[in-house]
Amino acid sequence: MSGPSAASSEPIRHRQQLIDSLASGSKPKSAWRIGTEHEKFGFRLDDLRPLTWEGEQGIGALLEGLTRFGWQRVSENGKLIALSRDGASVTLEPAGQFELSGAPLETIHQTCVEINSHLREVKSVADGMGVGFLGMGFQPKWRREDMPWMPKGRYAIMRRYMPTVGKLGLDMMTRTCTVQVNLDFADEADMVRKFRTSLALQPVATALFADSPFTEGKLNGYLSYRSHIWTDTDPDRTGMLDFVFDESFGFERYVDYLLDVPMYFSYRDGVYHDLAGQSFRTFMRGELEPMPGVLPTMSDWSDHMTTAFPEVRLKKFLEMRGADGGPWNRLCALPAFWVGLLYDQTALDAAWDLVKDFSLEERNALRDGVPRHGLKLPFRSGSLRDIAIEALKISAEGLRRRARRNADGADESIFLMPLIEIAEANETPAERKIALFKGRWNGSVDPVFREFVY
C-alpha cells in the first residue's frame, strides 16, 4: 500500500483508457527491472511495545532521523508519513510497519546492497532511540487493540470499512508484514504466462517464507498466519483469481476485475473522500452519490489498483504477494526466487510446465492448506516440498543463465541458499521458531525480539 499516486489527472471516459494504461507497462527485456519491498515491525527495546507515530521513540522521529541520509520528506496534513530518495521510498503501513519500497534495479546484487544499506541506516537511527525492528509475517505478541494507527487518511477509511466485509481485515492492516517483488513483462502474452506461473507457484513462496506461528504470545496453529488472514479479509479483493487461467485472460479481463472491486476512496486536493464499497463503474459515469458529476482521473485509477489484494497483483508490472516478512537474507532471497523463474525464458517455460496441469481445485487447495501445513502440505503423491525443490532448481538455473555476477564473480543464485536449506530440511522458519518456543524459550515469545532483531 503506497501513498497518493502522482499519476495523470486526465479524466477517464472510456474503459479502453484503463486497458491501454496496463498495456503501457510492457517493456523490452533490456528494460526489465527488479523492485523489492519489505515491511518490518518496530518496537521499543525496553518494553517490546509497538511504536506510535508521536514521541521521542515514535515513527515520526525515526523518519525525521533518516533524513540525515538524504531522504526527502513526504507529509500529509503537516505530519511526516514517508520519505523518498533516488526512486525508492520509505512508507508506513497502518500500524507503523516500516516499509522500504526499493528502486527499480537491474540485479539481485544491487537489491541486496539496497536492503542492507536501508537496514544499516534504520539501525543507526533506531539504536539512539532505544528502538528495534523485527522481520516476521505477523506481530507475535501484541493484540490488535495494542497496535497504534498512523495519521494517514486512507487508513481511517479502510479501518471503518474492513470489519463490514471480513473478520481479519484489521489484523491484516495492523499486524502483518510481507516481502514482495515487482517484475516487468514484455507484452500481453508474456504477462499472461508470468501471471499464471507465479500465481500457481505462490503457495510455494508462502511455504518457504512461512514465519508467523504466534498470536498474542501463543501458538496460533499456523505456520503462516499472515497468509491465513487474507482468507477472511475481503473476498471482493483477495484470492487466487481463477479467471487468470481462462483462455480469454489478458489486460482487458483484469481491468474488468478491478472495475468490480469496490472502491475505498478518491484523493482530491489533499483530501481523502470516503467511497468505501462504491463502484468504479458508477464513478466513470459521473454518478457517485458522494461526488455527483465528478469523473475519475488516472490518478484515481492508479490508487484504486493498489486496493486489490490478490496473491499476484497486476499494475504496469506484476507483484508477488505470497511471502511473510523475515530476516535480511530472506529479503534478498524472495526477489531472487522470482527473478530466476520469470526473467529467463527457459526457466519460465520449465516453471509453467511444472504447474500447467494443476486444476483449479488443486490451486485453491494449495492456497488454503499452505498457511497451516507449509512444505508438508500433501499434494498428489507427495507434498508441496517436492514442488518447492523443483521450483528452486529451475530458479537457480535461470539465475545462472542470467549470469549477473558480483565483484567476486558469483551469480545471483547465491541468494537462494536460505530457501534451498529450508526446502532440504523440510522445516519452515515458523517451525524453527515453534521448536524454540517449546524448548529454550520456555513458552515465551519475548526472546524473538532479541534473537531476531535486525
Describe this structure in words.
It is a single chain. Helices cover 41% and strands 16% of the residues. With 454 residues, the chain is an alpha+beta fold. The strands form five sheets. Strands 1, 2, 3, 4, 5, 6, 7, 14 and 15 form a nine-stranded antiparallel β-sheet that branches. It has a two-stranded antiparallel ribbon with strand order 8-9. A hairpin with a 2-residue loop joins strand 16 (378-379) and strand 17 (382-383). The longest helix has 21 residues, at 188-208. The radius of gyration is 21 Å and the shape is globular.
Please tally the helical runs, counting DSSP H or I stretches of 4 or more residues.
17
Runs in which pLDDT lies below 50 for 5 or more consecutive residues are 1-7
Task: Work out the helicity level.
Answer: 40-55%
Structural class: alpha+beta
What gross morphology would you assign? globular
The rounded distance between the terminal residues' Cα atoms is 23 Å
The largest sheet, given as strand count, sense and whether it forms a barrel, is: 9 strands, antiparallel
* Overall pLDDT level: 96
- Structural Rg: 21 Å
Oligomer: single chain
Strand proportion = 15-25%
Q: How many β strands by DSSP?
A: 17
